[in-house]
Design goal:
Layout lengths: L12 H24 L6 H14 L3 E2 L11 E5 L2 E3 L13 E10 L2 E10 L5 H18 L9 H12 L6 E2 L5 E3 L6 E5 L16 E4 L2 E3 L5 E3 L6 E3 L5 E3 L2 E6 L2 E4 L7 H6 L10
Antiparallel strand pairs: 1-4, 2-4, 3-12, 4-5, 6-10, 7-8, 7-9, 9-14, 10-13, 11-12, 14-15
Helix pairs in contact: 1-2, 3-4
Bound molecules: magnesium ion (2 copies).
């Protein structure tokens, strides 16, 4: 059998600049949603906030209608890992909620996700979210030329495995290339080994999105056809950013500062394109 090598969409600096504009719309939408998270608010209300921010920027929600998905954000609560559908149930104090958002502007996509506690959450839930966020940034720090794609997942895995608690890493869902479509090649797994896969070349843009569980990572999709939950009922966290590989380093397109602060803390300089 012949297998043609997968062609990856390589962007020009100008195109990455356009993706930055989409990324900032996603950042704005997520900021507005996170600011509204409190006990009593519903997923549908958060969805309306995100859609309003996206549309008033002249952008379009990527998720709405995607394979029939009915909302502009995913709201995944407690044991839900990803793809939760916003509903009319009020969020309760102490739950952990993951919010995933995507927007299209001028034909280019941005995609990012955060996990936040509603009011005060338990130590175990906060630690889970923190390690997932840290794993994301360690992965993003490897989105630089000279490396290989699986360097990203290896860094994610190393960070999670380095924690005191024995967390699970979801394997069935992965990060992805992104550009003129939300989901494009290559897949970006959240586990190693490093040094495999396509070379990280300037112009490659990917979404990195670790999904980490407090218990086992085994999961199942609910009968709604979307919501992915842990089989053991344990908590899950999900953090995501869209990052461009540039000749001068990573540019985290969905982070307001381009990733400058978080990357610097890891000893990595942000792309010169970040200004
Ligand atoms: Mg996403
Ligand atoms: Mg994604």
């Amino acid at each position: 059998m012949f297998r043609r090598p997968t062609r990856l969409q390589v962007k020009t600096d100008d195109q990455i600049g356009l993706m930055r504009q989409a990324g900032l719309v996603v950042a704005d939408a997520l900021d507005a949603v996170v600011a509204a998270v409190r006990p009593g608010v519903t997923g549908k209300q958060l969805d309306a906030i995100a859609e309003e921010v996206i549309r008033s920027a002249g952008a379009t929600p990527s998720f709405l209608g995607y394979h029939g998905f009915p909302a502009s954000i995913c709201v995944s609560i407690d044991n839900a890992i990803v793809h939760g559908i916003p509903n009319d149930q009020p969020l309760h104090e102490g739950i952990l909620v993951s919010i995933d958002c995507g927007a299209i502007l001028h034909g280019w996509h941005g995609d990012a996700a955060v996990t936040v506690g509603v009011g005060q959450v338990g130590r175990g839930a906060q630690d889970l979210s923190d390690v997932t966020r840290s794993a994301l940034w360690h992965g993003l720090a490897h989105a630089r030329p000279g490396g290989r794609l699986t360097d990203i997942g290896a860094a994610v895995e190393r960070t999670v495995r380095g924690a005191v608690h024995d967390y699970g890493i979801v394997r069935e869902y992965v990060g992805h290339g992104i550009g003129t479509q939300m989901h494009m090649p290559p897949d970006v797994p959240n586990v190693g080994p490093a040094g495999k896969g396509p070379r990280l070349v300037p112009g490659l843009v990917v979404a990195v999105e670790p999904m980490v569980t407090l218990g086992a990572p085994d999961n199942v999709t609910l009968p709604d056809g979307w919501t992915v939950v842990t089989m053991d009922g344990g908590l899950a966290a999900h953090w995501e950013h869209t990052v461009a590989v540039t000749s001068t380093g990573p540019w985290v397109l969905t982070a307001r500062d381009g990733g400058r602060a978080e990357l610097a803390a890891l000893g990595v300089e942000v792309s010169a394109l970040a200004g």
